[in-house]
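Review form for a predicted model. The reviewer records the input and the model, then writes brief findings.
Reviewer: anonymous (R2)
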Amino acid sequence: SNTPLLFLHNTTGYMVGKEYEEGGIIKHGSMMINAVANSKVPHISILLGASYGAGHYGMCGRAFDPRFLFAWPSSKSAVMGGAQLAGVISIVGRASAESRGQVFDEAADAGIRAMIENQIEAESLPMFLSGRLYDDGVIDPRDTRTVVGMCLSAIATAPIQGTENFGVFRM
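Model under review:
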């Protein structure tokens, strides 16, 4: 319909695990990412709360080059949360030690986990991300309507043309 799309992010990502995978989360998530990737109308993304992992991509995160991307001061964004990343690193380290027949150092693991969690927490904050030009600025939530209006006004200065190609959807 040649209508610009507005994405309001508050997602911790797509759920993982046997139950969700059997329920089709991979298929449904990939359909959403496919739709965003093949859409040619202008996209506006606003990070309200969390915006993590593949859910960030499905909601037209920076990798999909939205025309505008703003963040609220309450937002956070990362490939995954600090606790999740620390858990993955811990699992890999434990498996590596066991495969070599070594004793896993629990104290060192706890220190590494804390360091990773602190780093990811600090680097997922909007001021850090905005300082790296990840977004177009951190906005006061009360100004959201005005900012979206200015974005739509800027977008309206050129023709808006969608696409007739929608990629391949698996059913």
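Findings: The first helix runs from residue 18 to 22.
Further findings: The radius of gyration is 19 Å.
Recommendation: see findings above.
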